[in-house]
């Protein structure tokens, strides 16, 4: 079977995101889709590590938002800023510390989920814009679709492979 160019497959898949229901964040698919290819492509080991780590980032972003909300209800001024710094430092550090565990070692995947959550919440996406818990669910759902789109792109699309270019001499060879 002859495959379509990957650009055609990817563009057709991207067009399907126009029909995303309930004002879900389609760009969260794109972040996870691109992240899957950046991590090595939609191979089983990559899919496992990206699907394992993206929700961690999403949950930690949610916890930061909730911590900031709690602090904002009880503090103000310099005390609020100090509390926000402590919340962010502690939760972000804890999230990244999880990357020391082999199962969670793909820390960039955590940040795909992390960034997607903030974009969803503060971009007022989801069926209930501005709701932190709904943003959590919407982000996880849409991020989970990204690696599927990457797999579909790789499975049905033929990637263009550039011709090898002539390499330049190394610095030692150039000096001779």
Please work out how many helical segments DSSP would assign.
7
Q: Indicate the proportion of strand residues.
A: under 5%
Oligomer: single chain
Along the chain, the helix and strand elements come as EHHHHHHEH
Across the major sheet, the strand order is 1-2
What's the pLDDT, averaged over the residues? 92
For the largest beta-sheet, the strand count, sense and barrel status come to: 2 strands, parallel
Shape: flat
Distance between the termini: 51 Å
Helix content: 55-70%
Secondary-structure-based class equals mainly alpha
Show unreliable segments: none
Write the topology of this structure.
Elements (H helix, E strand, L loop, with lengths): L3 E2 H11 L9 H13 L5 H31 L2 H22 L8 H16 L9 H25 E2 L12 H5 L1
Parallel strand pairs: 1-2
Helix pairs in contact: 1-6, 2-5, 2-6, 3-4, 3-5, 3-6, 5-6
Question: Your description of this structure?
Answer:
This protein is an all-alpha fold. It contains seven helices and two strands. It has helices at residues 6-16, 26-38, 44-74, 77-98, 107-122, 132-156, 171-175; strands spanning 4-5, 157-158. Helix 3 packs antiparallel against helix 4 (77-98) and helix 3 (44-74) runs antiparallel to helix 6 (132-156). The longest helix is centred in the middle third of the chain and has 31 residues, at 44-74. The termini are far apart.
């Amino acid at each position: 079977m002859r495959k379509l160019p990957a650009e055609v497959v990817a563009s057709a898949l991207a067009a399907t995101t126009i029909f995303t229901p309930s004002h879900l964040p389609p760009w969260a698919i794109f972040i996870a889709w691109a992240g899957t290819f950046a991590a090595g492509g939609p191979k089983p080991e990559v899919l496992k590590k990206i699907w394992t780590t993206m929700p961690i980032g999403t949950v930690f972003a949610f916890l930061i938002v909730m911590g900031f909300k709690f602090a904002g209800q009880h503090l103000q001024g310099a005390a609020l800023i100090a509390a926000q710094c402590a919340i962010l430092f502690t939760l972000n550090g804890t999230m990244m510390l999880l990357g020391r565990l082999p199962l969670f070692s793909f820390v960039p995947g955590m940040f795909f989920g992390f960034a997607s959550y903030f974009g969803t919440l503060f971009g007022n996406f989801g069926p209930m814009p501005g709701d932190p818990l709904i943003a959590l669910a919407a982000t996880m759902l849409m991020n989970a679709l990204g690696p599927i789109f990457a797999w579909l792109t790789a499975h049905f699309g033929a990637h263009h492979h550039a011709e090898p270019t002539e390499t330049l001499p190394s610095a030692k060879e150039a000096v001779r």
